Description:
Layout: E1 7-10, E2 30-31, E3 36-37, E4 40-41, E5 63-66, E6 68-70, E7 78-79, E8 88-89, E9 93-98, H1 104-114, H2 117-121, E10 126-127, E11 133-135, H3 138-143, H4 151-183, H5 187-197, H6 199-211, H7 214-221, H8 224-235, H9 242-267, H10 274-283, H11 291-303, H12 305-308, H13 326-343, H14 350-370, E12 379-388, E13 393-400, E14 411-415, E15 425-428, E16 434-436, E17 442-445, E18 452-462, E19 465-470, E20 476-480, H15 481-484
Parallel strand pairs: 2-8
Antiparallel strand pairs: 1-9, 3-4, 5-7, 5-9, 6-11, 10-11, 12-13, 12-15, 13-14, 15-16, 17-18, 18-19, 19-20
Helix pairs in contact: 1-4, 4-5, 7-8, 8-9, 9-11, 9-14, 13-14
Amino acid sequence: xxxxDIASVIGPVRSVRPRQGEVVxxxxxxxxxxxxxxxxxxxxxxxxxxxxxxxxALADSDILIPAVRPAGQRFRAVRVRSEDLxxxxxxxxxxxxPKEGLTxxxxxxxxxxxxxxxxxxxxxxxxxxAGDIGRVSSASLLDVRVPLAGEELERAFKAVSEAAADFSxxxxxxxxxxxEAIDGVDLEEARSNLLAHSALLRQRAEAARKLDDLGHRxxxxxxxxxxxxxxxxxxxxxxPDEVRSILHAQEVLLGYxxxxxxxxxxxxxxxxxxxxxxxDRLAKMRGGITLGDxxxxxxxxxxxxxxxxxxxxxPFAEVLxxxxxxxxxxxxxxxxxxxxxxxxxxxxxxxxxxxIADECWFDLETxxxxxxxxxxxxxxxxxxxxxxxxxSRNELGVRVLSGDNPIVPREVVPYPEPDVEAGSLYLRDRxxxxxxxxxxxxxxxxxxxxxxxxxxxxxxxxxxxxEFKSLEHGHPLVIPGDESxxxxxxxxxxxx
Length: 496
């Protein structure tokens, strides 16, 4: 939207001599372009401007930018804070004054935008004869278009701003602890106090370092089925089942992504053609859903024009790009070759087994890195719902199944819609909206091992019975065909 819709621009200050007899305020704190630094406002040593060059009084949240700058350089844009006031606008400055109603996050976006190349590219500015000075007018600044339309961008800015505020707070705590330690009379006591009072800060740093490790992120932040199989592969490392566990982890990852692709297509009203092939095979009871089917679904989703046209802000749209990355396709092919060798008794022998395992780990990590968007779409198990029609609000009891353990705390969260099923699994998108995963994913206690597990439809055992398979353990779960609701997604004929 144009900047003029959300803000006005004040300045620059013009040189106007006071008329005879006019009373002009004196001793005003006046900010000039020189005091607008990349790090903030330098208000410690403000000079007094000539009375005929003192501009309007500034307000909290005004954004100051120099009206004159070296050509080609971005603007220094700085927010005025309440502790900076009182201040008046001085020479060579423009003040962008936001209109009422803008949130703190929106103000941050406007400030960052004014510092950006995107803003600079929209400004026609006049250059001095030397060609090294650019000037911008209030009118041209009001015409620039600010990217405030997307809720996704606002949410991302808010999250980053909150993280930055936390980091700044922790850094101030560090500086205070270090200063107290140095100023202490007894250095041995100062050392003990420093270690004692910095324990939480050191734990925060350790937790942050762990997040740089891919394995830790997968095990703690990926959806339960993917994280569980990853952890199982790690546990098998160095043992006889290492490669087999890696291949299982790959199949569950691709299966989960394929289910997400089907949900994305259903949301967009687009049919995945391969589901028709699966429907025919299931009806004839010719085996279950295979890794090849998951790969075919992902490949079709990446090639289908109607899906490729979807805005990438749509829920789960990232999965449509997954099979467009060359390194992903190559890793899938190599792991497929290893799988085929094992199925056809092509034994590489113990001397080469370690090398094959290392290569498989490299390929699995390639697939997982390309799927890190899964962290933004948590798997949610809804335990209970409580709709209040008077205020149009639902109260949900949920468990967020992120990480390799289904035993997670119960949370109570508000939700604005009534049509949520207790007992079902949902995928939550970045906007907080829940998308029903049933019947592609259902969660229940496994009848074989007793552990709570996630199941996907696998095969028909007879004309009236569907067998689901656990993504975590591979154990079966039998459900009558008329209760499976697979006809809704096209995996069963509607008359079954």
